[in-house]
Amino acid sequence: MGRALVAGTALFLAISATGSGVRASASSNQQPSARGGVSGRVVTSGGAAVSGVTVTLTSTDVAPISLSTSADGRFSYEGIPAGRYRLTAQKPGFLPTEYGSVRPNRLGTPIVLSAGDRMADLSLILWPSSAIAGVVRDASGRATSGMAVRLFDGRADASGTVEPRLIAATTTDDRGDYRFFHLRDGEYVIAASGGRGGGESRAFVYHPSAARFVDARRLSLEVGQELTGIDVAFTPAPPVFIGGTIRLATGEPASLYRLSALLRSTYGTIPTTYLNVNRDGRIADSNVPSGDYQLIVRADRLVRDAAGVEPSAQPGTLWAQRQLTVPLGGVTDLSVTCTPGITLDGQVVFAASAVPPRAPVRLKLQSLQVPDFASTADVEMTPGKASLFRFGDLLPGPYRLVTEPQSPLPRSWSASLRLNDVDAPDDVIDVPAAPDSSLHVNFSLQLSEFNGRLLDKSDRPAVDFFVVLFPIDPRLWTVGTRRVQQARPATDGSFMVSGLPAGDYYLAVLTDVDSRAMFDRTFLGGLAQSNPFRLTLTPGENPAQTLRVGAAR
Amino acid sequence: MRWTTVSSLAAILVAVTIEAQAVAPQDSTTKSTGTVEGAVIDAVSGRPIAGATVTLTGPGVPQSLAPAVTGQGGSFRFDALPAGRFSLASRNEGYIAGRFGQRYPDDTDLPITLANGERRSKIELRLWPVAVLWGSVVGPQNEPLARVRVTALRSVFSRGRFELRRRVQATTDDRGQYRLSVPPGQYVVALEPSAASPPAGQPAYPALFHPGLTSTAGVNFIDLRGGENQGPVDFKLPAAKSYRVSGRLESGEEKPAASVRVSLVSDEPGAIPTELDMAPATVSQGQFTFPAVFPGRYLVRAIQAPRSMDQVIGRVTATGFSMSGGRPPMIGAPLPPLPDSPTLWAEASIVVVDKDVTGVPLVMRSAAHLTGEVVFRGNQQPDSNQLQASSVIVTPVDGRDTGIPITRIEADRTFRTVGLPPAPYVLTFLLSFPGYTMQALQVGGVDMTGRPIDVGSQTIPPIKVLMTERATELRGTVRNAQGQPIEGASVYIFPADRSAWVDYAMAFPLRWRTARSSRDGSFEVKGLVAGRYAIAAVEGSVPEVWQEPKSLDWLSMTGQRLGVAEGQVQTVSIQTTKWVAR
Predict the structure, then answer these.
(1) Rounded Cα distance, B499 and B508, in Å
(2) B354: contact with A, CB 8 A cutoff
(3) To the nearest whole angstrom, how far is the Cα of A360 from the nearest Cα of chain B?
(4) Which residues touch B8 (CB under 8 Å, ≥6 apart)?
(5) Could you say which of B93, B143, B179 has the minimum Cβ distance to residue A144?
(6) A53 at the B interface (CB within 8 A)?
(7) Nearest Cβ partner of A90 from B93, B146, B201?
(8) Burial per residue of B403-425, b for 16 or more beta-carbon CB atoms within 10 angstroms, e otherwise
(9) CA B237, CA B311: separation in Å to the nearest integer?
(10) HEC per residue, B151-168
């Protein structure tokens, strides 16, 4: 993907740090009862006042307070207790914004209010949202109503999986028109599907007339832009037939299993699709767009009793997985054999210092390839002691390790993982095809917290900068990971980063970070090259640091 | 009470049998050599439609028979068909899906009958193009409002009056614009009420009817023909503030539970009944709140019907029977008994002028039950399982959804409904076994067959329902003035007595039937209750709302009279007339 790096107009800055022990919180107020005020104005990026904007003041201590701006765009809060606040604004037709966001999609500046402080004339900037519109036409060029139209994130790595991220879906109206609105600026792809009257063909056609996502035209949408004429020529290639047989390596009849066969195409023709499979293991599906797929067959053992057929409580899932190229002539002699899954043996060590949960914790290994497939294990957590667990019947590939929501372990658990004796990210676990693999999990209830203060050379709060923390180990740079975080210094220069697992991190200070590009490996790789500040975070609160931004290199 | 228009009438009853459709045995001697061919045409312009999908289904037709796609002249053709009765349907983008023999989009269809090796050609399948309603929605400062739900309400004749039912919904875009593709008909465009807490920066508003009314009294009807495009139908939210209406549910001893349903209904004189104005309130700890109500007269109603987890709510509408809640009962399995707790209800009249209306007291009172007995006149008496799997559906005449659970018939053939808030009700009997049809319903010895039962505050005498094994049968032939049998004519059968000219039984009619004549002009109607009837046959175009009094007057005048007695099988001959739209 030759995508331009959105994030960094990054001017890297020299940092000098002092472990001065300054606490970044604003809790050191002398008169906790004295109340302050916050007031200001909401304007468009062109400077015009905007009325009727919902402005919301939030903090961890006080319930959010919402106001509506007056005719001249003004708002005013009175009687606000001291604390750390975020001030956000939203109005239909505009992108949600925050105080201190000088460009769209940027983190704002927290407001630190000491007892009795008044902050006046704060300015919040609203950027207009964008829209994409067009017409879906059939083979004869006629505008077609009732077609399903989808809007995808145009970045092929945006979702962290092999499929593009779906942002919105709509249907063409009687004139064949569709319209997506209230959009952020960014890169998008449009796809139409549905056939006449809906549902006849599974095929997607990507704007302007591509059969595959990777061949679609990327739409670059600017802030406030209305892209029209984004038409789709809906002329899908005729669907083809896939026929074949599923066998089981155990030699049992297929009817003892519940079978499902799914096709996944990596940024290809269609989203994950299930093929028609009968009880005897015959695949017969006449509605598949030709293309390159990954075929995954799942066979779950069933138990039969007087009441009928129920999924077996016994583990017994067999798998088959292969690449499948479906040519224009279709496939008639597909033969796949399901074999037993992989077993992953593991060990949990629960931090000695932590209070153990009263009941066993249910660990769940969720497949990122097969919808609704997960393997679970109940683990007794004893501080300082290793507990064993086993995940069985796994298809090799990516998984996510989670704790069941009802289990007593807080959602904010922290784990460090070693898979086959190699450090692994805790976000995505890649289960290898090797038959006996092992997973070592160190659990800790305490995440790291890191506070600091960013000042300029004259010791004034350096509010115009962004702080990014990310792991030194590039294997941990997965999409959406909590190990990559950003912060903006508040009005007093203080910043806080919390909820990171302990470990070795880089800290970089930048002049601008697009929130959507945070997990971009190229972006992080560039930052890592720029000689950032290194720090080791321990569980719990870490010593506060005062950082001074120097001259740009 | 609000039910003045119907309170003088009384009760109704319908017996319906849930019965597996008999599959016609297939004659193995027939050869599959028949042909059906014809064309799909635009019902408005008369032009052929190319590229339409045509499907033919019926006994003996293989599931795999591929749908035909019409060619340039709209033509289609199915070959190698066995003899039989088939249904022929078509759909195409921009048109309402249609079936053979329809004279308007929602009309009944006609089967295609095919003899051994027969070739039926020139079959004409008419499709109606969709009509379009479009417009925009803006706020008090003319700012476009996005994501507002706009509904096309169709004017539908039901239970003796017109009412407005939701037909198609759309949502406005960022320019406030919407487009609704609808079947031809008469519509009112309305805004669905906003969410209790609308998105930031958007106002809260109640249901609004074009051109901007909070009640259906004086609404703007739009008549749409197929393919017609009408707009702009614009809305501007009034700058007038909306107000909150809130109050308390008060009851004697029992605390009102969370399952209380509180709704607000327009009480403006001349309002047309609609399902849209029934905005539900949020109820919390006996306190109810409607967040956005515009000035006007309203009724606040509360009902708390007893329900246990597996209780199922049944509703009878013009098109059939629907169930909600609980676990849907398996056909043939005994229904759960009803809980013993009372039904509580309350009603209050309010007027919203220029401020919030708070502290509205709703004093919950307990409601009266209907009790009765079902008599089965016949040799094959049902067993207790069959009885307990049979149900009584109680539907208020105004069609609103009250959450009244389904009553079962007990092994001793009696039934007892839950408490029913004062209103006229229709009872529908759904039998779990075949063989019986309803013959009569009496309340305290008075015949109330086909009429609603007016439940008030006083005790209603026990109901007696008579089911018979000897269903009536009426067969006939429709001929034109020249004595030739006519295919596809509509036959209408309805009470001869004008005072019974409202069909309360809807989807399960007792005294109201319509049929279409076959190729040889024949028709057949079974299970009419005993009584005097008017019968008329119409050739060519027909009234779309035949149960309207003005249509009935005409049909009654052109038709003939006929008596039907219990178990009677009779044959009639009717001459068709031509309907002239008036």
Answers:
(1) 20
(2) no
(3) 32
(4) none
(5) B93
(6) yes
(7) B201
(8) bbbbbbbbeebebbbbbbbbbbb
(9) 41
(10) EEEEEEEECCEEEEEEEE
Please report, in tens digits, the pLDDT of each residue of chain A (553 residues total). 333 333 333 444 555 555 544 444 444 444 556 788 999 999 998 999 999 899 999 998 778 899 999 999 999 999 999 999 999 999 988 999 999 998 888 999 999 998 888 999 999 999 999 999 999 998 889 999 999 999 999 886 655 666 788 999 999 999 999 999 999 999 999 999 985 444 467 889 999 999 989 899 999 999 999 999 999 999 888 888 999 999 998 888 888 888 999 998 877 788 888 998 988 899 998 888 888 999 999 998 886 554 445 554 455 789 999 999 999 999 999 999 999 888 888 877 776 666 666 777 788 888 888 888 888 888 877 777 778 888 888 899 888 887 775 555 554 556 666 777 666 666 678 888 876 777 777 666 667 889 999 998 888 999 999 999 999 999 888 887 888 999 999 999 999 998 888 889 999 999 999 888 888 888 999 999 988 889 998 877 888 888 888 754 4
Q: Provide the token pair at B502.
A: 């409202």
Distance between A149 CA and the closest CA of chain B, angstroms: 15
Whether chain A has a CB inside 8 Å of the CB on B179: the answer is: yes
List chain A residues with CB under 8 Å of B201: 52-54, 68, 90-92
Rounded Cα distance, A140 and A130, in Å: 31
Q: How far is CA B47 from the centre of its chain?
A: 33
Q: Do β-strands A186-193 and B34-42 pair in parallel, antiparallel, or remain unpaired?
A: unpaired
Among candidates B509, B455, B511, B517, which has minimal Cα distance to B486? B517
- How far is it, in rounded angstroms, from Cα A538 to Cα A349? 17
Chain-centre distance for alpha carbon B210: 24
Q: Is A486 on the interface with B (CB under 8 A)?
A: no
The C-alpha atoms of residue B102 and residue B97 are separated, in whole angstroms, by 11
Measured CA distances, A219 to A103, A148, A234, B115 (Å): 20, 19, 18, 59
Alpha-carbon span A271 to A269, nearest angstrom:
7
Q: How many residues does chain B have?
A: 582
Cβ contacts of B199 on chain A, cutoff 8 Å? 92
Question: Collapsing DSSP states into helix, strand and coil, what is residue B387?
Answer: helix
Whether B94 and A145 lie within 8 Å, measured CB to CB: yes
| B173 part of contact set with chain A, CB < 8 Å | yes
Question: Residue A417 contacts by C-beta under 8 Å, 6 or more apart in sequence?
Answer: A401, A423, A424, A425, A426, A429, A439, A440, A441, A442
Residue contact B93–A92, C-beta within 8 A: no
As given in the structure block, the two tokens for residue A353 are: 């210092």
Picking from A57, A95, A174 by the largest number of B CB atoms within 10 A of its own CB, the best residue to mutate is A174
A121: left (phi over 0), alpha (psi -120 to 50) or beta: left
Predicted TM-score of the model (pTM):
0.82
- Of A29, A22, A25, which Cα lies nearest the Cα of A80? A29
Q: How many CB pairs under 8 A join A and B?
A: 59
Chain A residues whose beta carbon lies within 8 Å of the beta carbon of residue B200: 54, 56, 66, 90-92
Tokens 């809305």 belong to residue: B235
**Cα torsion at B247, B248, B250, B256 (round to 10°)?**
130
Rounded to the nearest 5 degrees, what angle is found at the Cα of A348, between the Cα atoms of A344 and A349?
Answer: 155
The residue among B480, B512, B478 whose CA lies nearest residue B495 is B512
Q: Which two tokens stand for residue A497?
A: 């980063």
